[in-house]
Write a structure and sequence with these properties.
Length: 93
């Protein structure tokens, strides 16, 4: 982006999981943190849809994790979900 002289503004809500220290060191990217509750004020029609999608994702993902752990227990191995398996489950969900 810097070579092309492009600049980016990245708007981020105030979620504690956002890595602010890492994001602030990006070149050609200006990070703007939105005040609390901004997303709920800007997009009230999408809020129920957003919650529904997240809720359904969690149900499917948790089901797959439990299914994997049950299979591991049946095979008498330690029930473990590694990062690759977790990513595949998330994509499926």
């Amino acid at each position: 982006m810097a070579r092309q002289k492009r600049r980016i503004v990245l708007f981020i809500n105030n979620c504690k999981e956002h890595p602010s220290a890492i994001i602030l060191h990006l070149m050609s990217v200006k990070v703007e943190f939105m005040p609390p509750n901004t997303t709920s004020k800007l997009q009230p029609p999408l809020k129920p849809l957003d919650h529904g999608i997240i809720h359904k994702f969690k149900i499917i993902y948790r089901h797959d994790v439990v299914k994997k752990c049950d299979a591991d227990i049946d095979e008498r191995t330690k029930p473990v979900v590694n990062v690759l398996q977790a990513m595949r489950m998330a994509v499926k969900a």
